[in-house]
Amino acid sequence: MPDAAVPSTSSLTRLRSAAADCRACDLYRDATQTVFGEGPRDAAVMLVGETPGDVEDREGRPFAGPAGRLLDRALEEVGLDREHAYVSNAVKHFKFHREGKRRIHEKPDAGEIAACRPWLRAELSVVRPQVLVVLGATAAATILGRSFRVTKQHGEPLEWADYAESSPLTTDDGPPIDDAVVVATVHPSAVLRSRDRNAAYAGFVADLRAVPRVLSPSS
């Protein structure tokens, strides 16, 4: 498996352009396009999910489908504007199988996550957020390591420094960021799949409320 051809740059535009030609794993063969992160370079908040879904794959934007709409609603409820955040995924291509005409999401495997890791590292090193929101188990394993459990530490502000050394994103060149607060929660698609969606959504919002508290600790 070839390494991702990630340019050394502080430009998100250049990173996005280079990622469009990534062939580091086989997911590009069936996906419509690379779905890179989006948002301002100086975003104080960066949110990372798992992979693009069907809508995201077609539109080329992260969190553009039902899970994204739920995320937008939750962010608004806690006083955050998605337009001011940087939103991305651990894996940039849609993985799926077909059931008739439908394309059904599949969880990326360890090799696919590893192949895409340099892109996420590059995004983090450019954006350097004050708060990093980890959405779901795949993003948590990618950023914080496989031993991290969202179910145990969701909604709890954590210091990146406590995880930097063991993070899969840390290389011989060091970690991609020096300092940040990490807040982990479930992926919004898990809320949509929940039997008790109202309760799941309330828990999701409660976790996200930690973000504005970190950004404005005196309020």
Automatic annotation (TrEMBL):
SUPFAM superfamilies (UniProt xref): Uracil-DNA glycosylase-like
Entry-linked InterPro entries: UDG_Type-4/5, Ura-DNA_glyco_family4, Uracil-DNA_glycosylase-like, Uracil-DNA_glycosylase-like_sf
- Keyword Iron on this protein? yes
- Residues covered by the Uracil-DNA glycosylase-like domain: 36-209
Q: Which GO terms describe its molecular function?
A: 4 iron, 4 sulfur cluster binding; deaminated base DNA N-glycosylase activity; metal ion binding
Q: What are the UniProt keywords, alphabetically?
A: 4Fe-4S, DNA damage, DNA repair, Hydrolase, Iron, Iron-sulfur, Metal-binding
Report the record's Gene Ontology biological process terms: DNA repair
Q: Identify the domain of life.
A: Bacteria
Family, per entry: Belongs to the uracil-DNA glycosylase (UDG) superfamily. Type 4 (UDGa) family.
Protein name per Swiss-Prot or TrEMBL: Type-4 uracil-DNA glycosylase
Q: Which organism is it from?
A: Jiangella ureilytica
The organism that produces this protein has a lineage beginning with:
Bacteria, Bacillati, Actinomycetota, Actinomycetes, Jiangellales
